[in-house]
Each structure stands twice: as C-alpha cells, then as structure tokens.
Amino acid sequence: MKLHVYNYLTRQKEPFKPLERGQVTMYTCGPTVYDHPHLGHAKTYVAMDVIVRYLRYLGNQVRYVQNITDVGHILDTGEDRILKGARRERSEPMEVVETYTRSYFEDMDALGVVRPNISPRASGHIPEQIEWIKMLLEKGYAYETPTGDVYFSVEQFPEYGKLSGQKVEEQEAGARVTIREEKRHPADFALWKRAEPEHILRWPSPWGWGYPGWHIECTAMATKYLGETFDIHGGGLDNIFPHNECEIAQAEAATGQSFARYWLLTGSLTVDGVKMGKSLGNFLTIKDALNLYTPEAIRFFILSSHYRSPVDFRRDAVLAAERGVERLHNTVRMLRKRMEDAMPSGTADLSYIAEIDPHRDAFIEAMNDDFNTPQAIAALFDLNKEVNSLLTADQPLGRGTLSAIDGLYRDLGGKVLGIIPDDLTQNVGGELVTGLIEIILDIRQRYRDAKDWEEADRLRHQLAQIGIEVDDRPEGPTWHVEHRGG
Amino acid sequence: MKLHVYNYLTRQKEPFKPLERGQVTMYTCGPTVYDHPHLGHAKTYVAMDVIVRYLRYLGNQVRYVQNITDVGHILDTGEDRILKGARRERSEPMEVVETYTRSYFEDMDALGVVRPNISPRASGHIPEQIEWIKMLLEKGYAYETPTGDVYFSVEQFPEYGKLSGQKVEEQEAGARVTIREEKRHPADFALWKRAEPEHILRWPSPWGWGYPGWHIECTAMATKYLGETFDIHGGGLDNIFPHNECEIAQAEAATGQSFARYWLLTGSLTVDGVKMGKSLGNFLTIKDALNLYTPEAIRFFILSSHYRSPVDFRRDAVLAAERGVERLHNTVRMLRKRMEDAMPSGTADLSYIAEIDPHRDAFIEAMNDDFNTPQAIAALFDLNKEVNSLLTADQPLGRGTLSAIDGLYRDLGGKVLGIIPDDLTQNVGGELVTGLIEIILDIRQRYRDAKDWEEADRLRHQLAQIGIEVDDRPEGPTWHVEHRGG
Question: Contact A266/A48 with Cβ under 8 angstroms?
C-alpha cells in the first residue's frame, strides 16, 4: 500500500499525492513565543517531525515552513500574549520574543525535531499581511469599522466551517462568543486591530496604526513560501477552530484557489488525565521534562500513540518508554560492537537478510497507513527480538550482514523515528568516555585473569557508582550509562 | 580612573557617561547572512562582546541590539548578497537566510559571545524602513527618481562625512564611485530600490514594489529598539564609510536629534598578513577555526590585541594563545582542586587578599582605559603568577582565601573576558570523564604505593594515548586534556 493520510478536510483516509511528484510543500502553525514551550508543544511538533522525516525517507524533497507568532495572538481577554509576557517580565516585547524563540528552538533541538526550512515570524511579515487584508477588502470579504478595525465577514464566505464542521448559524446563538458591537456577525474575526500610541507593537497601515489579527499571519506566510495551493497543513487539533478555519476562509476568499490540500492535525496532550494548567500544578515545560527523562524516551512515548490520538503524560508510561528505548539501544550497541570485531566480509548473508527484511516492510506498511507510529514501533521491536536471537546465538556473523542490520536501525529508528542516535556513545561524552572505560575494563580483565575477583568487583562497583553499568557477556563485557533521571 | 572610551565621532578618548545612569543602550551592525561567518566576524563580535560584558560587570544594565541583514545588502556589482547566495544554492532566499542565521548563532554561541537582547532582521522591519524613507522625502533630504528608486541627497545634509572624515567634494572626483545617471550627486545613496516581479525579495511601498537599501535598516532598527539617541554604536571599522556615515545622515536628518553618542569601532583581521579572500586560499570560517583551536584560544588571541587595532591571524600566534589559556586553566584547576580538599574556614585570610587585590585593580584600570584587553590580560597573568607561588608554597590555605581567589578568576577571566569557563571539566565530557579519570588515577596510585612503577607508567601512557596528560605534583596528580588540534 502506498502512503495514505487521514485528511481532516474530507474526514477520510486518502492516498497522498503531492502537487508535484517528489516535492512536498508543508506548513505547520508554530508557537506563540511568550513563555517556555510545554509538553503540548512537544507532542505536536514531534508528531509533525516524524511526518516530515518519513516523507523525506520516502524520497520526497520537503519544504517545511513553520511560523513563529510574535505578534497578534489575542487572548479571549483582548490582551496580546506577547505584551502580556512583556509586562510580566518588565521588558521590551521584542526581548521577550527573542528569549522565548531561542528557548523554543533549544527545546526542539534537544528533542531531535528537525528544523523547518523556513521559520518566518509574524512581525517580519506585516506588509504581506496588509496586502492580504487589502485584497479581502477589495473583493468584499472584509469591512472596516468606524473605529479603524478590519474584520472578515464570515457570511460572505459560504464555505466557512468546512474544515471544523462549525456552522455560522450555530455560532450566532453561541454563548461563549462575546458579541462586540462593531462586528456585523458575532463569528466575524479581526484582520487588523487599531492600536493607540501606548500600544508598543504597532505598524502603519491604510487603516491607521495597528497590528494584524492572529489568523492572517499564517495565510500570508504559508502562501508566500509555499504558493497559493500547497500540500499539507499540519498543527494541533485544538487550533482547528477558529484558527485553521479562518486561514482557509482568508486564503480561498482572496485567491479563489484551494489553500492546503491535506490537513493533518495532532491530538492533544493531557498530564495525569487532565488538561495541563499552571493553576492545576500539572504544568510541565519541555525543559522540566528533559531534566527528568531522556529526549529519546519523550519521543518514544509520544510516538507510542498515533499522532491523531490524544496522549496522557504519566510518569510510569514515560519510564516504560525509557526502558523500551534502552532495550533498542542495548541491542544496537551490541550489534555495533560485534561489527567492529567481525571479520570483514564483502556481502551480506542473504539468508539472514531474508529474515530481517519483512520487518522493514511491516514498518513501512504501518507508516504508510497514516503514519501509524505505534505499529511501526511494534515492527521495530519484532526486528529487535530477531536481532537479539541472532546476536546471542553462537554463530559467526559477517560484517556485511551486521552492517545491513545496522543500516535498518539507522533508517527506521534513526532517520524516521529519531529515537536511535547515529552515535550511541556520543550521548555520554564521546570517544573520551569510551577510551577511559576501555582502560578500566582492561585493568579489570587483568585482575580477572589473575583470579583477583575482589579487585575486579571493586572496579565494577566504582563504575556503577558513577553510573556505568558493566554487563559481562560470553563475547566480553559491554557497558551502558544508567539514566539516573529515569 | 573611570571608564574612558575612544569615540570615533570626536577622535578622542572621552569619559563614558550613558544617557541614563546605569542603563546603556548599544547597537552593533550584524552580519549579512548569505554564507558561513568567517574569522573577521569573530574578531568584531568577540571584541564587542567583551565591551558589553565589561559594561555589565561595572553594574550597568545593557540593552544590546544587533541586527541580521537578510535583505538589501547590495554588492558593488548591483547584486543583492542574499539573492546571490540563493542562486548559488538553488534555493528560496529565506531558506538561505535561515541556514546562515542559524550558522551565525551557532558559531557565536561556540565562541561564548553572549546573545544580543534583540536580534532584529531587516526583512522583518520593512514598514519601519518605509516610514523613515517617507520622513526623509517629506523633509527634503531624499528624492524619487523617474525609475522609482529613492535616494538620499548628501548635499542636503552638510554634516555628511563627520564620522569618517570623507568629504562629499572629494567623492565627486572619486574614480571608484560609479556615476549612475539617475543620481543627483555621485555620493547619493539608495534608500529604496524598485524591483521587477522576477526579483523575489520585494515589498509594496508608496514608490511601487521594491526593497530597502542596506543603510536604512540599521537606522530604523537601532532607533526602534533604543530610541532616537542612544549610547553606543559598535561595529567594524571597515563599515565606517559609507555604511555608518549613511546611518547617521538618515537618522539625524529625519529626527534633528543626534544618533549614537559614542562610536566604538574594531580593527580588521588579516590572515598571514593579507586580507582574507576566497581566491587567496587564506579564507577561514569560524567553523574551520573551531576545528583547529579551542574557543578560548581564539578569544584569547583576539583579545591579545586592542579592539581598535588590526590583528593578524597566524597559526603560531593562536597556538601561543592556546598555551596561554592552558596556563590559566591549569592554575584554576589546581586552585579548585585545593578548594575541595581545603579545610573549611569562614573568612578569607586578609594578608593573601591584600596581595591579590592589586591585580583586580590593574585589570580594571586597563579595561577602563578604552577596554585595553592586552593590558587586562597581562594583569591576569600577574595574578596567575602570584597564585601559582601561593599554591606551590608549602603553606596551608583556608577555603575562604582560595574561594576569594577563585572568585577573581570567575569575574575577570570568566564573566568579562570569557576565557575561563565556570566549569573547567565540562569541556571534556563533564562529571563522567572526571569520575573515570579518578578511578584510573586511584589504581595508578595503588601501583605506585606498591612501587610497581612499570604498571603505573603504563597507565599514564594509556591515558596520554587518548589525550589525557597526567602531571604529578607534590600535592598529588592533576590532569588536563591535550588539545590535539593545537
């Protein structure tokens, strides 16, 4: 089966065909940078990351754009999130933006989320947004109020609601929508807000000084870098309404072309069964989580659920994920050690490869079914079981065979899922650590050769005290670093 | 003596007094992000970094703004640098910008250059630049050509040339200035350039679609975040004309206020005596240099010359810097080791402190004299000599005394110069490496106690093979990592 994706626009699984063969254009709504990113961001962006990685693994060139919202994200209270952050920290809004944009990329880098090709900022695309608003006004989809705001008129765009299934009529009666006098319809949304001089984030426009609404930035930036119609729009399901719905309305009203062709949206994240909230005491930033767990464990945990499903972040579940990752890493370490020691042999032994290949097929089968990572991970563990038996069975294995197996881990666990680093020793200080441990294991071997078990055990104990666990195996000792956070 | 700085505007040393006591506003022209940063960038930004660090050490709150030029930097050939980079790599200009902005910050982070509080991008401030151009047109300092470009008229601003000493009249005769027909005076410079649809980097403006000239971005961004008049403008001396001169002309013509109050400009960098050039084969990126030398050695080397002086990057000079840094690090390692072992004693021994304090004074005296880092480094080495004698003399030292000395290193070598990391073991893999080496040194000590010199030497040799040099001292062995690049 070729790749199928669940498209929120049609509410069904469809074969995935990019506009241009081998070239995928993809946009995901990025964070509003007014605070450190939390676990909800980790869930969305790790899930999207694996989608991008897999599309590339299939041979596509992916142009991945993800914005940074540094202006215009208005809260229900009418406050701008960035200005709120700046007030809290008593600093210039752009300093707040700088701090948290950096924090965001630090966390994503730590989680192994591959950087987008372009990370455009909302404040860096004011003229583009103004052009869009002008177009919408010209075509009669927007109106200016006497107070200098500009709104999108949802009644002019009959397809409004087509992504989320929300009906304009229902919203009219909706209790949660505050009816503001200047709007023609309660569901109309702001394209431009007038701002008085005391408002620090403001720009000149045909409608006076002000700032753009939140939704218009994504329409402007996605189309600027990907074209009027592009392949995939990703993001969190919680933004499907109103944000994603508004993006579509703005884009399609102005251009008459369809906007994103496939909408891939991720389920949300709860902590211990409830929505994360600062007042609830269950709020975890990514930095908090990285102090407690390894990046691979966090990724593995997130990927153990399907990206469209919600996940519940519980300590025991993440610890289980950590053990799962460690099992994979241990096998790969053993495999790579064997490769070093193995006799060079040009080609892989085809009978072993025949046992291994079905696992790659199962992995691809799972991923082709709307990026079913839980099933793909299951395939990886089936492979791991097989490889463990191969390695512990007392039979000679040529380097060609071993390196074919290693290649499989590097592709599936490394390139696609991002849970098996290319260098498993790098995590713990690289070559130097390996070199030092080898000196110590060498001394220990001399004690053992001299049957001085007491001294040999003392060394093992000393290593354990600093977190190095030695595992004596028939083929010689191996070691790994105990994750003390776990 | 209080801090004095050499102000290029007055060509003399002046006492430094910020507009608001204890608050310094500072701007430095940042890189054009179309390629990996080179050693010239390292020289400018490390020098500026130490100025910012020292101002903070003196207790000032510094708001440091440094732009990213991602549009509008036109070469003599009339080509935009970013577009040139994009053509070379066959990618979207904003992908090029993304790649090299990231590369720039990676290198600066590696060199320990503290991040600016705000790093605004030129492409993110198009409306601001348009507002400036409108002001200059309204006040008669600029004119629009029939082809839709806007130029600044240098003849309207009699002070043009006041920073660089270049005279408008002399330029008229200048052979190197291409006289373009549409300019009223050959020294007039572009504020806005018209761009045809095939030009990818363009925005709408009152003068049609186009893009801003290079100089206007710095005027717009500096004043946006620091106010019309601010304290310090930094940068490389090679940008004094025309770039810095144009910034002043634009700002002061439009606002009638003085722009930057102090101009602090750095000397240039040559490699093996000649200007760096890709065709000359002496072009070194920062990444190249970091493969060969430690970040501290590169900083130390740059700071061994005064920031206004040119420096010549030669391998032997950088290796000498590396040895210099290593001498400081060795003493600090020894000092910190002694601190761990020392008897706790509440207060510092005043007689030692009396010997140490003059070195701090000498350091501050040097830095107050226009940031004279070569002399400040000399003061640090005088301190180091003193500390070495203290540590090797066979006298007891209380923890209070040792930690007062350590505090001095942390302030002067760490916070201000950035050449002594707070954690000297972190460089080489952190706690784990330290723990492993201690196990090995412990075994070696047992061999020595048993007078088994052969085995003890074998261990020393094994450590040396992986780059750990053991140094036996009367107070016990110390170790350091040999920099193999050096």
Answer: yes
Rg of chain A over CA atoms, in angstroms? 27
Quickly tell me which residue has 């990329």 as its tokens: A105
**Tally of CA atoms within 13 A in the half-sphere of A148 that contains its CB:** 12
pLDDT of the residue at B175: 44
Contact B221, B120 (CB under 8 A): yes
B225, B226, B443, B454: best to mutate for the A interface, most A CBs within 10 A: B443
The CA-atom distances, in angstroms, between B419 and each of A25, B232, B339, B430, B485 are: 45, 24, 21, 18, 18
Contacts of B440 in chain A (CB under 8 A): 436, 439-440, 443
Q: Tell me the nearest-neighbour CA distance from B51 into chain A, angstroms.
A: 20
Overall size of chain A counted in residues: 486
Alpha carbons B167 and B156: distance in angstroms, whole number: 14
Q: Within an 8 Å CB–CB cutoff, is residue A459 touching chain B?
A: yes
Q: Do A63 and B437 touch (CB under 8 A)?
A: no
Q: Do B433 and A431 make contact, defined as CB atoms within 8 angstroms?
A: no
Residues 6+ apart with CB under 8 A from A235: A28, A29, A44, A48, A244, A265, A266
Higher pLDDT, A344 or B178: A344
Best CATH choice for the domain B328-424 from the list 1.20.120.640, 3.40.50.2000, 1.10.10.10, 1.10.340.30: 1.20.120.640
Identity of the highest mean pLDDT range in A74-83, B301-310, B311-320, B391-400:
B301-310
Residue that wins the pLDDT comparison between A114 and A468: A114
Which residue type does B461 have? H
Q: Which of B64, B82, B437, B466 would best serve as a mutation to test chain A binding (most A beta carbons within 10 A)? A: B466
Q: How many CB pairs under 8 A join A and B?
A: 109
Confidence of residue A174 (pLDDT cuts 50, 70, 90): very low
Average pLDDT over residues B235-240: 96
**The one-letter amino acid at A150:** V
As a whole number, mean pLDDT of residues A283-288 equals 91
Mean predicted confidence (pLDDT) in B341-349: 69
pTM over 0.90: no
The band of A79, judged by pLDDT with boundaries at 50, 70 and 90, is confident
Mean pLDDT for the stretch of residues B42-52: 98
DSSP state, residue B450: T
Q: Is B293 helix (H, G, I), strand (E, B) or coil?
A: coil
Angle between helices A126-138 and A245-255 (to 10 degrees): 60
CATH number among 3.90.78.10, 3.90.1150.10, 1.20.120.640, 1.10.1670.10, domain A324-424: 1.20.120.640
A426, pLDDT greater than 70: no
Q: Is A73 on the interface with B (CB under 8 A)?
A: no
Q: How far is the C-alpha of B448 from the C-alpha of B455, rounded, in Å?
A: 8
- Using the Cβ of A227 and the Cβ atoms of chain B, whether some distance falls under 8 Å is answered with no
> Could you tell me the residue ranges of all domains in chain B?
4-266, 328-424, 427-481
Q: CATH number of the domain at A4-266, please?
A: 3.40.50.620
Q: What are phi and psi of A321, to 5 degrees?
A: -60, -40
Measured in whole angstroms, the distance separating CA B332 from the mean position of its chain's CA atoms is: 24
- Put simply, whether A131 touches B (Cβ < 8 Å) is yes
- Give the pLDDT score at B156: 96
Which pair of tokens denotes residue A93? 């809004």
Cα gap B215→A248, rounded to integer Å? 38
Inform me whether the C-beta atom of residue B95 falls under 8 Å from chain A C-beta atoms.
yes
A218-260: pLDDT as tens digits: 999 999 999 999 999 999 999 999 999 999 999 999 999 999 9
Distances in Å between the Cα of A61 and the Cα atoms of A18, A54, A305, B54 are 11, 11, 26, 47
Q: Yes or no: say if B92 and B86 are a contact pair by the CB < 8 Å rule.
A: yes
Structure tokens at A156: 């002019």
